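Q: You know discrete backbone vocabularies at least as well as I do. I have my own habits and do not want them to colour yours. No explanation is needed for now; the record alone will do.
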Amino acid sequence: MKIQKGDKVEIIIGKDKGRSGEVLKVFTKKEQIIVKGLNLFKKHLKPTQGQKGGIIEKERAVKVSKTMLICPSCGKKIRVAYQIDKNGDKSRICRKCKAIIAPNKK
């Protein structure tokens, strides 16, 4: 998948169109991601022994096709290209400024 955990993405379709945030979790088989602070919904919780009840807001997964990666160097919405160097290492690059997008080690 072209989007990884820790990348900054912008929503291009839906109620959060134009807002951006950091990717918290990636579901490769479903082709969905969870973006911090976006696509929120309210969940009602019953009180249990160790926890108080109430209404909390949680992030819901978004389809990857509804998001675009933001390049860390030029700050524009981009599509990702791949480049293989002489050692055989595959890296993601920005199609607009040709900068290498560093892999996130989290």
